[in-house]
Structures are given as structure tokens and as C-alpha cells.
Fold:
Amino acid sequence: MDIKCKDYPISLTYLPNVRLRKIPAPVRVCVPTVCAQENKSVIKRPVAAKKVIGLSAIRKGFFKVYSPVKGAVKTYKKNLKHTYEHKIFFSIIEKQLYGKNTIDSVTHDLDKMFLYTLGFPRSFVSKFHRKYSTHHVESGKSLNLRSMLVDNVASNLKEGKAPLRVYYNSSAELQEIPNFDKLLQKYNFGENIDLQEVKRIKDIKVRGIKGLAKNIMKMLSLMVIH
Structure:
């Protein structure tokens, strides 16, 4: 005869040919780990951690933080370098056009250098600069035509854009500036500038990050004085 426990099946077997004085009553046997629904005091085995932090996880976390920072630093250096080199171009071209340098060579784009040094984004710096600089029409101020001529020649030569004459003929904004066309004609749209000579002088003046830092400090000190 088989006797089964609904919670944990076991069998009690006796032989029919053997006389027993008394057949034990069926015993209800339950194993705690199996009869979990009725026995609330079951001790569960510890569950392994779902995520183990190792060198791989640390490495991924590091690069997750490092990559954006690296990109920001790269952009920061690029903005400063671009503006600094434009200032060098401006200074060289001003001297070639007019025979000497003026205070414009020092103050030109000084606000951009200062704001970039503080870490402001290019979109903000460009908008701010054009709003307050007298060599940009967007300022709404009395324009410095001499500085505007040098700035346009420097930008076109440095960036390798279309000649200033072509740019002027396609720009209604520049054509509306009183007397600017006469200044352009007087200096032949800057077409007499020797670009290779400008680059040679620029390379001499630019001395890597040390030269950049030195000039930034010089310009900041001048800004405080003025």
C-alpha cells in the first residue's frame, strides 16, 4: 500500500504476506523548502548580485565622463586658436594696407578671446561680439570702416573664401554701407596682399600655446587698463 503526502510525496510500503500487529497510521511528512506556501519560516538561499562592479565597469564609467570633457576641451582650444590666429592675420594685414598698426590690432576681437577663455560657447560669443563691435553692421553703431576693411580681408584670406570683391558684389548689406565701396576701391579689395608673406609672418608670431597664453595675458591686462 502506498500513502502519499500532497506536499511531499513519500511511500510507506508493507508486504502483504507479513503479519503486522499494527499498521502505523500514515504520517504527514513535509519538507520545509518544498512546502513553502504553508511554512512561512522557510530560509531562502542568498541570491547572487545581479551586477558586479569590476574593472570593465569602472573603465566604462570613466570614459562616459571623460569623453564629453575631452570634447569640450578640444572645442575650447579650437575656438581660442581660431580667434587668436585671426587677430594675427588682422594685425599683419592692417600694417600691409595702412603702413602701420593701430590700437585696433590690440582690441580687435578682444572680447571674443576673453569670453572664450572663460568657456562661453561659440554661439553666444559670436552673437555678443557682433552686437557690440563697430566693425560689424549688426552693432547698429557708427562703423569703423578701416577696421571693417581689414577684418573682411583677413577673414577671406584666412578662411580661403571667395575674394572680397566677389563677396562684396553679392552682399546687399555691405553695399548699403556709406563710403565703404570707396575704401574698398582705394585699397583694391585687399588683392595686393601677398598671402604667402602673411602666412610666413603669422607662423613666426605664433609660438604654440606659450605664445597664446602670453598674448592672452597681455590683452587682458590692456582691457583692465582701458
Observations:
- Residues 1-5, 10-15, 31-39 have pLDDT under 50 and may be disordered.
- Residues 215 and 221 are 10 Å apart (CA to CA).
